Amino acid sequence: MREMANSEEGVALVMDCVLFIICNLRTLQAEHHDDFYHDIESSCAAGNDFMRMIDYFDQFIESVLNKYPALKKRKDKKKTTTVLEKESSELVAMYGNDAIFTVQRSQVYVMKIIHDSTIRDDIFSVEWEESFTCNEVALSIVQTMEDYLYDFHNFLSDEYLYQKIVAALVRAVVCFYIRSLLQKAENVRRRRRRNNRTLETRFNSPTRAILRLMYDIQVFHSYFTNLVKQIPPLRDVVREELGALSIIYECINLAINDKDPTTGMLQDHILVLHKRTGASTNVTKYILQDLWLLVSSKSDRKKLNETFLQVHVELERMSTNIKENDMLNSVPKSRDLLPGLLLKEVLAEFYELRIAQEKVVIPCAPCLRLSRDKARLHNNKGSATPKSPTSIVNALNLDFMKPKMNPRKLDFDKENTSHLLPILCGEDKLLSKPAIFLGSLSEVNMEEHKKIMETLEGKLFKILKLHNLNFINHTVRLRPRMKNKDSLSEDRFDNVHL
């Protein structure tokens, strides 16, 4: 037996056995690494277990190599490292990534507690602006974070994992604060109600609001700085996150106080913000528009759009350079990077729906009526234009009603939007620039025009349902005008909802 252990066949047999063990451990870890955590305690326990597995596996490999020194000499064909070292390092990396991911995932439970508390209702509310003079909301966030950090310090056996959860909570708190501010602007823009009560409104006093914002940032700065003193490796993370809060504050300050766009300060801040948003031109534009919506007048918002157009070329050039650098320095994203902790990812997800809506074109009823009527006139060789609105609608056989004031949040397949047409009219605004999508109807005959309209009707059907619109098919006709004097409108008619 000893002779076989020292022979080449014996070494190969031992190598196969060890590799088989490593392969099974990797397979089990990949299949069941998400089964060990359901709350903060179980997540911390799983992170501790994964780190212990690294220690146990290192001891196992060390004992095998001490007993069979010949295993160290077997080289990988593609690399200079030994086969056993290569396979072992991959398994250890998997355990380490899963431990970090599991611990960082615990911040989800902490942030859920913040979401379910009164903090979400109070932040950037009228009370936050007028009544909470001691920054109670920011202090509540910090106090909640501190309470759970004390628990994490007791639960986690590894100091490295504790640093990771602290960094994750710092990022999550900053993302929550900025997202809450942008959500307020989104509610104002869409005329939504705050917590199903009163309509969301702009800040009553922009000057008071900017002071509240400044003092909130000071609360976060003071607490995060104390964390850096305890955990020095957090210095870069804290500097980056506080920088994001500072640029948001500076932009709002410009919206309130900088009335002269020719100074160039706004252009500089747009470029700085553009880097923070992941070099997305649309996201940068929407953030600025939302911040200006909360604190500035309509004329100031118009100046902002003009200034943004001036630097648009520079933004596109910057985006191209950043994407090229990312492609050159691209590194496969490991599992330890939990989604939702990076500000640029949070902003991209927040404005994803708005970007998709601007790419969709919904034709308004007057446009389609005019197009169909012109086509009829051409094919009838100049027959008289129908004077009655009913006759125009009957000629069109297609009508669109206005969307509701509070449209539902769309959740459609992103990969299935290529067939959507380029927009048209919302309630009283254009969601995006109108586009000519029917071509020149004066050069087609009635058969070709009928095919175009049938294709258009099929493509628009899903879009109309998404935008909560009413649809009248070709089998429906309008009722005659009501002659009753008590009727609310003479032009009222019934719709058939599909």
Question: How would you portray this structure in words?
Answer:
This protein has 498 residues and is mostly helical. It contains 20 helices and two strands. The chain has helices at 2-6, 8-32, 40-67, 83-104, 106-116, 119-122, 126-130, 136-155, 159-190, 206-230, 235-257, 265-276, 281-295, 298-310, 312-328, 343-350, 352-358, 365-379, 389-396, 446-466; strands spanning 399-400, 471-472. It has a two-stranded antiparallel sheet with strand order 1-2. Helix 2 (8-32) packs parallel to helix 4 (83-104), helix 3 runs antiparallel to helix 4 (83-104) and helix 4 (83-104) crosses helix 9.
From N to C, what is the helix and strand string? Answer: HHHHHHHHHHHHHHHHHHHEHE
Rg, Cα atoms, Å = 31 Å
Provide a count of the helices. 20
- The helix/strand class is mainly alpha
Q: Ranges with pLDDT <50 over ≥5 residues?
A: 77-81, 381-444, 471-498
- Mean pLDDT equals 75
Sheet bearing the most strands, described? Answer: 2 strands, antiparallel
Query: How many DSSP-defined strands?
Result: 2
Using the alpha-carbon principal axes, give the shape. globular
Strand content: under 5%
Order of strands across the main sheet: 1-2
User: What portion of residues is helical?
Assistant: 55-70%
The N- to C-terminal Cα distance equals 81 Å
